[in-house]
Amino acid sequence: MHTIWKGSISFGLVNIPIKLHSATEDKDIKLRNLHKECHSPVKYEKICPVCEVEINNDDIVKAYEYAKGKFVVLDDEELENLKKENEEKAVEIIDFVKMEQIDPIYYNRSYYMSPSEGGGKAYSLLRKALEESEKVGLAKIIIRSKEQMAIIRVHENTLVMETIHYPDEVRKAGDVPNVPAEDKITKKELETAIMLIDQLTTDFEPEKYTDEYRTALLQLIEAKRNGQEVVTPVEKEQKSNVTDLMAALQASIDKTKPAQTEGKPAAKKKRSTTKTKTKIKKEA
Q1: How far is 262 from 59, CA to CA, in rounded Å?
Q2: Which of 246, 254, 261 is nearest to 276 (CA)?
Q3: Cα Rg for the chain, rounded, in angstroms?
Q4: CATH code at 124?
């Protein structure tokens, strides 16, 4: 399992060297955009709208837009120093709370935690202490240049770190439009709804839930592939350097030909052309 972060977690005087591993994976099917005419993959180029030129990563700087059209530029060295200054600190569990006090709306992403060399005993101690106390640890950690709040809990004998949103990152429910302020329902309607909920209530078994759309899309792709309904990009014609060189030479020759003047004998025109050709040979 790929390690995405190395560091240590501490609570009190106990320090646990750990590694983080992604606990989930994105299984979305990635579809490419092709040009309808020739089935070539569409490229998305970075173009400066003012200079009207294509730019690469070396031409790009990061900035914060503090007002419309006004920016504060931050260079890579400043950002890197700020990142190192915070990343080198050990992650400390600052509080312990009951998990049910944290609304699921705060949850962001899950990571498995494994002990680094020499951290096995301290890892087991924290795991057992969390199980016995029925609490989770609250900590701060910097992952991929972003400081995040996180909870540390036990899942199937493994410590899990769940990053959670800060309160100011969660939008207020009161701002949601068209939410009815009062419940205008009858007692009979409520009783029927509760009866239906009771009939559909079961134990949570995650294995029985599947992504039906992804399964159907994979089947469609496989069926088209087996039926040879596949497309390939039209090869871009490569111009021959020889052809281009000959065309350039011919254009040069044509350009050096003097315009024919009325009344001039044809012989003189021929001699003029011959001289021009001789001149070109000598220059070559």
Answers
A1: 59
A2: 254
A3: 35
A4: 2.40.290.10
> Among 34-43, 239-248, 265-274, which stretch is predicted with the lowest mean pLDDT?
265-274
Question: Across the chain, where does the E strand assignment appear?
Answer: 5-11, 14-22, 47-48, 53-54, 62-67, 70-74, 91-97, 107-115, 136-143, 146-155, 158-164
Which range of residues forms the domain containing residue 156?
5-25+90-169
Whole-number Å distance between alpha carbons of 265 and 158: 101
| Residue at 162 is within a domain | yes
Q: Give the CA angle between residues 230, 232, 236 to the nearest 5°.
A: 165
pLDDT in tens, 98-154: 999 999 999 999 999 999 888 899 999 999 999 999 999 999 888 777 788 999 999
CA end-to-end span of the chain, whole Å? 65
Domain assignment present for residue 242? The answer is: no
The Cα 26–Cα 4 span in angstroms is 16
Residue 96 CB contacts under 8 Å (≥ 6 apart), including other chains: 133, 135, 136, 137, 138
Distance in angstroms (rounded) separating the CA atoms of residues 256 and 252: 6
| pLDDT given at position 88 | 56
Residue 88 to residue 80: CA distance in whole angstroms: 12
Q: Is the pLDDT of residue 257 over 80?
A: no
Q: Give Cβ neighbours of residue 75 (< 8 Å, ≥ 6 apart).
A: 61, 62
- Asked if residue 184 belongs to a domain, the reply is no
* Cα 130 to Cα 137: distance, rounded to the nearest angstrom: 8
pLDDT, tens only, 79-111: 777 776 665 566 889 999 999 999 999 999 999
Which tokens belong to 5? 């972060």
